[in-house]
Design goal:
By secondary structure, the protein is mainly alpha-helical. The protein folds into three domains: about 20-115, Serine Threonine Protein Phosphatase 5, Tetratricopeptide repeat (Alpha Horseshoe), CATH 1.25.40; about 120-140 and about 225-245, no CATH class; about 145-220. Helix content is about 65%, strand content about 5%. It is built from eight helices and five strands, in the order ααααααββααβββ. A three-stranded antiparallel β-sheet has the order 2-3-5, with no helix packed on it. The longest helix has about 40 residues, at about 180-220.
């Protein structure tokens, strides 16, 4: 029990000592302004930065940032001064600089006030653009194999027609006339031979036509109504993407 009481007492004392060692915003700002009066702006800036971390309201933060802006402007750093003044006016738009501030620094401060609070500008988002390309004409390229197979089809059909007519004529003669044995054998042979030749010729034409169809299917030309959709662009701050689809 005594050990616990002793530990609590030590902790309380340490906390009080730490609180006593950490100066409040008023003390930090007082020390910083003393450095500013002695034109020791480089030592005033760390004190003001510490004061800004312990500021309890917007009014205190605005005053500290205004002092930071004065220090940076006096050291010849207008960009840092402008940032500090923007923070000060953002916390308290009605803030004014202390009496006796140099006209040059006051002009910088009033210039920041005139510009107003800066808003983060978002890059515009460009609407998607869809470009539909006109249908491209189909160009069927005729190759030598097409001539060969086409010629085979025509030749087969022609040969089939001629040999078929010859076989048919021989059959008609056999049916419509009286012939001797030799003539009958000749007409029968002619009918049979030309009939077989006609079937073979039509078969050749069919095979050639089927081969040409297979060749055209393997060549698979692009359909005439193919539509190209391309150029869909999304832009967000410079990033873009392009999509192209053909169907």
């Amino acid at each position: 029990m005594r050990i616990l009481f002793f530990a609590s007492a030590v902790t309380l004392c340490a906390a009080q000592v730490a609180a006593a060692e950490v100066p409040g915003i008023n003390e930090l700002q007082k020390q910083a302004r003393a450095k500013m009066r002695s034109v020791d702006y480089e030592l005033a800036i760390p004190l003001l930065e510490r004061a800004l971390t312990v500021a309890s309201n917007r009014s205190q933060a605005a005053e500290v940032q205004a002092d930071l802006g004065i220090c940076h402007a006096s050291l010849g750093d207008p960009e840092q001064a402008r940032i500090a003044f923007e923070g000060a006016l953002g916390a308290n738009p009605l803030l004014d600089l202390p009496v006796g501030t140099s006209p040059k620094i006051r002009r910088l401060f009033e210039g920041v006030r005139a510009q107003g609070p800066k808003a983060t500008a978002l890059a515009p988002i460009q609407a998607p653009t869809i470009v539909v390309a006109p249908p491209e004409p189909v160009g069927l390229r005729v190759k030598p194999v097409d001539f060969v197979l086409g010629g085979a089809v025509v030749a087969g059909l022609a040969a089939g027609i001629v040999t078929g007519l010859t076989s048919s004529n021989a059959a008609n003669e056999l049916q419509n006339g009286l012939h001797d044995r030799a003539m009958v054998d000749s007409l029968s042979s002619r009918q049979r031979i030309y009939g077989i030749a006609s079937v073979c010729a039509y078969g050749l034409a069919g095979v050639a036509a089927l081969s040409e169809l297979v060749v055209l299917l393997l060549r698979h030309p692009e359909p005439a109504n193919a539509v190209s959709v391309s150029g869909a662009v999304l832009s967000t701050g410079g990033a873009s993407a392009t999509v192209q689809v053909r169907f």
